[in-house]
Write a structure and sequence with these properties.
- 4 copies of one chain form a homotetramer.
- Chain A has about 230 residues and is of the alpha/beta class.
- Chain A contains 10 helices and 8 strands.
- Chain A has an 8-stranded parallel beta sheet with strand order 2-1-8-7-6-5-4-3.
- In chain A, α4 links the parallel β4 and β5.
- In chain A, α8 packs parallel to α10.
- The two termini of chain A are about 25 Å apart.
- The interface between C and D is large, with 43 and 42 residues.
């Protein structure tokens, strides 16, 4: 069970945002549910709760916990900022960087990726299109998650509505840096969307409302996991 | 002892920033030390740790815990932001807003103060001079902490180097909103600085390095608390 | 005619934004049209073109020209920023500050108002509601323009849809600083809206699409000016 | 002489920032001086004045004029922003993007480069180190100007103090996009620094205080131009 806490691909990474369904005690329950599905299906599922929920969740589950953001700072006078060391110390294994709802300046993405590497956090840089994904790849993050912002939260899956964004991102990123793991996100709500994403060359998905706001998140997570398993078996 | 958790004035509010001495386990120890001094001296001492440390500290101590920042948002799609409800739910009783290291747009300070009020968090708006303090007072926060940024971290106390900033702030703020509690900060390192601040009409201090980075924070907190008691006894 | 260039109240202040109808040569034509109406109707009309159009327009018309924004900076190393001295030198007599499409941090609004005063530019701080207007008043700008952002560009006039925002703003601002000139804006498209704004206690309006994107801006400006004259004659 | 207005490499690009010596009438004089040196030495010299000075300067000189920044926007409701079309229409042939004093979010750099291309402006993306330069190269700008921010304004030339930053940037950028012209900047004050920059593989320099604040800018520009000619003749 120890390796449950390790990040493996393919991965389903669930962004809790600031949804009521994924805040405080609800966040803990959802993380426990994700852990259960992860064990049952044998697929890596990571969760990205709010900062204040990281330590509680990291103590309660053995699946990988991510921060939603870190600041490109170190110890010192940075009131109100998110210190990479603190996030790591609270039990996170990785962090989103530059999510479309928390975009950063280019030099700060570079510095945040560097800081993540220094403290041992897996960096997942979010991007909005192919050129920006290629650009991010040059900064050598561990993962890139491409999400066309116009599809986020719509239920229109990037893997079906804009498959060319996914395939061109995979191609452009791998050309610059073949070591980067590529995820995609936006609008993913069912197993078919997930399977399509994997078939297009990604190694996982970044998902939020599709799971967090689903009527039955447990069922949807299982559906996602099984879709990945089906693609893998081919 | 129950009332220990309540915010009373005069108050010593300790900003942990992202100092190594006040991160993770160090943050818990420092908060426990603050609680000890608060009980021994009978003076209200609040602590403002990093977001990820709030819940752990709030469970371990009964003194008031503040966030260092909240975002002017509600439940929803705000990845990487600090939700007021989460901070409250994690055990904080209040929050700094607009610290000089995390300045906000005017409309966002207004919205953050409103959100703090809605969820039951005490709002402490930080300001950099007298006009900005007056401006903040019009937004009806619970407290205003004036800190000339050029003195922060210098060891040159605002209460001695710029007493006129403190007195003119007290006057300007009270004229616009007599209900606001006024703190001052920047450069405060010993009991005399604290006593001077109280004599100038403030109801407490906002302090960071003066305590966090002191050789003996326990001793310095006692010195601060006793300085307040001496002024009160006159 | 010399006094045409002076800012007098009541004033119609036309924000050119980055509308195609008010960029480059179109901006010059629109400013000349505004000057014509100003002379014919005897009402002060100011124009706020883009930065690059200020000098050309200021040379061609004698009505007051405003910048849309200034940065709170002085001479020095501020690449890509808008220096108050440059704007003044190019012929502007005033500037918008903190427009809802270019919001500033509180400390920067304070610094920008101070800088405007230092170089002799009339400061017009834009605000989004009554508390923020009161807050801005404490910074002692020359004018405050309250514009509920949700009405901007809608054609639903603030003076009719939210008259209480206007009256409470007038009351709150005058209480803090009786010397501030109050304008209102958002959704104003005809003379009735303008008359309503003046009757609610403002001394002018800030308008953009209502004039810039009108089929016949000349006619609309005349309608606005005459509405003001009618209210004044009562 | 017509081709004077065209951007050719090697290029000396002079950033006027908001220096008093390069504002308003001083900016025009400095631009005319740059034009004189450009003609006399036969080297391309571009100038990047403040927004409000672009149109006046572009009318007076035939050398290339650059904006210091553009916003990634189009025609519409963007009060206080810098419209690429306006800058072009005022006579600029190019623009700096992401200068260290005006850093942008990654997605906005991408959008600004795209907008520059759409309106026919040469894009010069400023970067602070090698990974960020590589990252910028993936966005396909026309030029990249690498400037270690810690050296800007110091008089310690990047080409001598950190030659490896320049050579590794040239290598990394060319690998991702061989079509990008590479400039370097920061601390360049004499001909030797310029010659060193060219020898390291750049096609020009971005310079500010080294020329603008020189006692005799005319003489320094000539020295820079001749240093380039000497390197070319070898």
């Amino acid at each position: 069970m120890a390796e449950l806490s390790k990040v493996r691909t393919p991965i389903i990474l669930v962004n809790f945002k600031t949804y009521a369904e994924a805040t405080g005690e609800n966040a803990v329950k959802l993380a426990e549910m994700a852990e259960k599905v992860s064990i049952e299906a044998g697929i890596c599922i990571g969760v990205a709760p709010q900062f204040v929920d990281i330590s509680t969740i990291a103590k309660r589950v053995s699946i990988p916990v991510f921060a939603q953001h870190i600041d490109p700072i170190g110890y010192g006078s940075f009131t109100g900022h998110v210190l990479p060391e603190s996030v790591k110390c609270a039990g996170a294994v990785g962090t989103l960087i530059n999510h479309s709802e928390r975009r950063l300046k280019l030099a700060d993405i570079d510095a945040a990726v560097t800081r993540a590497r220094e403290v041992g956090l897996i960096s997942v840089v979010c991007t909005n299109n192919t050129p920006v994904s290629a650009s991010a790849a040059a900064l050598k993050p561990d993962m890139i998650a491409v999400e066309p912002p116009e599809l986020i939260g719509t239920g229109i899956p990037v893997s079906k509505a804009k498959p060319e964004v996914v395939t061109s991102t995979v191609e452009a990123v791998k050309k610059i840096n073949p070591d980067v793991t590529i995820l995609c996100g936006a609008g993913i709500t069912n197993g078919d969307d997930v399977a399509a994403a994997i078939r297009l060359g990604t190694e996982g998905i970044l998902v939020a409302s599709g799971i967090v706001r689903a009527k039955d998140p447990y069922k949807v997570m299982h559906e996602f996991a099984e879709a990945i398993l089906r693609v893998q078996q081919r």
